[in-house]
Amino acid sequence: MGNALVGAGSIRLSSLRRKAWRRAHMTEWLGFVTGAICVWLTVRTNVWTFPVGIANNGFFLVVFATAGLYADAGLQVVFLALAAHGWWQWLRRGADGERLVVRRGGPAAIGVALAAVVPATALLTWLLTAVHDTAPFWDALTTALSLAAQWLLNAKRIETWYLWIAADLIYIPLYAAKGLYPTAAVYVLFLGLCLYGLRAWQRELGLPAPKSVAA
Questions:
Q1: 19 pLDDT above the threshold of 50
Q2: CA 79 to CA 45: how far, in whole Å?
Q3: Is the Cβ–Cβ distance between 82 and 147 less than 8 Å?
């Protein structure tokens, strides 16, 4: 009788764990889909990239919180706020009555962005170390790069793509090491989309494509 009750309890617990596992992975795949759509809409300079991005932040907030990555989860709230700001930026009209267009920020924009990345990385490394993050420096660096990239994206500066590409090149092995393989796969796709997005925005600005080096 006792063994039967224990067995039944174990079955119910196992069933609950399987359901929780399925929900977690479904949320991660929803993050995959919304993330891909978000980047594609950014490539197309479509303002719907922001509401889709907000949904993506929500899904990954759940994924990271479920995985115990509370710092990553908390940072999704920051990205969500930045996405809301970018949505407003892209919709509003300036004093000339025109909306934002894709522009080059030039060395100044990159300089300001990188100048912000260095102290942000140092501060975040300290904070993430304090909460026992598994990879404090790399999490801090990718977060700082992503925040700077989002800032440039909100202003429709083409340099946003360089920072997203740099972040993705770190995110891929980082998430794989954390066992978040679907998320790592997302970033492989993101990397390809970012490279395509850079070229698309270069075409929009009438910039020449990078020339391949002959062997």
A1: no
A2: 18
A3: yes
